[in-house]
Amino acid sequence: MSKSGKGIGLFGVIFFVIASMVGFDGLSATASIGPSVFGWWLVIILLFLIPNLLMISELGSSFPSDGAVYDWARTALGPKQAARVGWYYWINVPFWIPAVYLIAAGILSELVWPDMPVWIMCMVAIVLVWATVLIANASTDLGSAVAVVGGIAKVGVLLALIGGGLYHAINYGSATTLNLETMRPRFDAGFLYAPTLVYLIVGAETVACLGGALRNPGRNLPLGLLMALILIIALYSFAIAGKMIAIPPEELSLVGGITQTFGVLFGTTGLGGTLSLLLSAVAVIALFATIVPWMMASSRAAAEGAHDGELPEVFGRTNAVGSPVGANVMTGLTATAALFIYGLVSNSADDLFWNLFAFSSFLLFMTYFFLLASFIKLRLLRPDAPRPFKVPGGMVGAWIVVLSQGLVLTISCVVFVFPGLSTGDVDLVESAPILIGIMAAIGLVEFSIRGKTKPPAPTKIVSVEGA
Fold this sequence. Notes:
The chain is mainly alpha-helical.
């Protein structure tokens, strides 16, 4: 704890986590699971969320670092594994961005062109991609301002879904039966979207950059994470319920589901129609403003990796204001190529969205396997490091939280690639675009990191005063 008593307190942790993790790009896919989503929530909370919260609380309070997963992997696993982390942490973003912007295009389609062709949606997404690159290349102040707008807008959208769903249920009933029987976990057709529940709650490790500035990290980090994640799960759960109250899960569009829901909850004509239109516009703004800070963060991480010689030199190029223009442009080019390539092999906008979303999420989840390995290795390499918070149970407790998360991540990755596995309907043709993309990405990463065997650079991890 700082002797001056200054620093980030409990509420600072809570607001940081909420601002960085809350989104709604995966809500329609999650609602498409059906009522059993709430049973699966309980499973994910027990097997993944609580173990993840405990692990991040230990790592974030004991080894605070701006690079979080990257720096932990470099210290614990060496430069070659850190290079893999750097690549996977960046490469998922240019495939995730077009998936999110397809939702924005789907919203616009629902508003102005219900039968908008997929290729037009791709063009809309590409325009948004390059608008994001332009803003990311500008000053940090502009990007930060956009992020604030996005944070307010996305919480507003979630609250509108919650309030509208409650009003609709009271006055008109629900389009979906929600009771204890329907909410129990099921391995049915909707299970293919179950990994989105994990996607909605990953990212807590970003709070590690606060560790050195926290007051009483042994208390404020785990408690702040717990309170923030409870609020996030409550927001998500009620918003998902609002969607299912309005529209049966099997009729919900993955890309236009937000506007679909607003149209049912508030109407499509008169004052209600105006409200639906305004909320849909806010949703588009929220999606755009959410992407900007993610591109800025991933590009800066990629630029740092390029300066360390672990990513190609082009990623390290900056402009007059210090923005990583090289990495931003590479992100834009990759996102554009993804929209073209996956657009050619997808039958609909929903298929295109899911291919990109599943592929990017698989690559993101790859980084968390390195996080689990780093956690165990740091326990072995740095057993005497001050740990303001420590996962209880010694090494047995550490292995339990690692294996539990690893199980959930493994199942999620398998289901992303083979969505019909739970019903025994595995279609290799359907899985081919994702499989080919994953193999190409892994091949690119492995080709790029060959020869990364130099000793680790001086660690950026710092210990926190006071155990």
